[in-house]
Design brief:
261 residues; alpha+beta; 434 Repressor (Amino-terminal Domain); 2 domains; four-stranded antiparallel beta sheet
Length: 261
């Protein structure tokens, strides 16, 4: 009576197939195929996997697979009950289960907080800029008295002309002896802050569209803004272009007389 290995070997040779071809086709290592054909398979921990390989091999050779499997089990003395006894039950480790749940919960909380803070905004108006919130101590203020005192010492401009009617500056003819004046015009609502050379806040607020602010260029105010592309610069009424690209964040930028962009 032929063994399982002999049956496999005869069937393979009858189809003129090499072990390498079988190995590539079925993705089974050559050593396993050789062991099957040489009846060198033992009833050990790998028996279940080898039965699976034998089933694939038998089907490929178009043999009576169920008969081959039964004959193989009898040949190696395979007992399914003994095999079940050898399987060690898997004991779940509750500690690692809790640890995974905790990690997943932390990730969910972080993601949810990020979503509600930065993504889900019901307010469709632009009331904020791409900079951190201003501390309460730096709420929008304009030290108008300080600004006007400096302006009045150098020229005869009226305070209302500089702050409230700054749009009229573009039409004023400036003498060479007059102080150079910079005007910042908002093309869209934009948060802006100006500080003097002593780092005192001169202006800090959310400017509305078309709102303007003018100051003497020699004061060297440093400009911090949430969106530089929304700020148009005029020097002595001459349009010099936007202070930066759309979306750019300015940090302590100082305008100069020859600025152009």
């Amino acid at each position: 009576m032929k063994t399982v290995g002999q049956i496999l070997l005869i069937a393979r040779n009858s189809k003129n197939l090499s072990i390498s071809e079988i190995s590539i086709e079925l993705k089974i290592s050559k050593s396993i195929i050789i062991d099957l054909e040489n009846d060198n398979i033992k009833n050990n921990a790998d028996i279940i996997f080898n039965i699976g390989h034998l089933r694939s091999y038998s089907n490929f050779l178009e043999l009576d697979t169920e008969t081959i499997i039964k004959k193989f089990k009898d040949q190696v003395g395979f007992n399914i009950n003994e095999e079940k006894k050898s399987i060690t039950p898997i004991v779940e480790n509750n500690f690692f289960k809790i640890e995974k749940f905790f990690a997943a919960s932390v990730i969910f909380i972080i993601f949810t907080s990020f979503y509600f803070l930065f993504i889900d905004q019901d307010d469709n108006e632009i009331n904020f800029a791409l900079v951190p919130d201003i501390p309460e101590s730096l709420e929008p203020i304009v030290e108008q008295a300080y600004t006007f005192d400096n302006l009045s010492q150098s020229n005869d401009f009226k305070k209302s002309d500089l702050l409230n009617n700054s749009s009229a500056i573009a039409s004023i003819e400036f003498d060479e002896d007059m102080t150079t004046v910079a005007t910042l015009k908002m093309l869209n609502p934009t948060w802006i802050q100006l500080r003097d050379e002593a780092n005192n806040i001169v202006l800090s607020k959310l400017m509305d569209k078309d709102e303007e602010f003018s100051y003497e260029l020699k004061l060297n105010y440093s400009i911090t803004a949430g969106n530089a592309g929304n700020i148009l610069v005029l020097i002595d009424g001459d349009v010099r272009g936007k202070i930066g690209k759309y979306g750019d964040i300015l940090d302590s930028f100082v305008l100069f007389k020859d600025f152009i962009n």
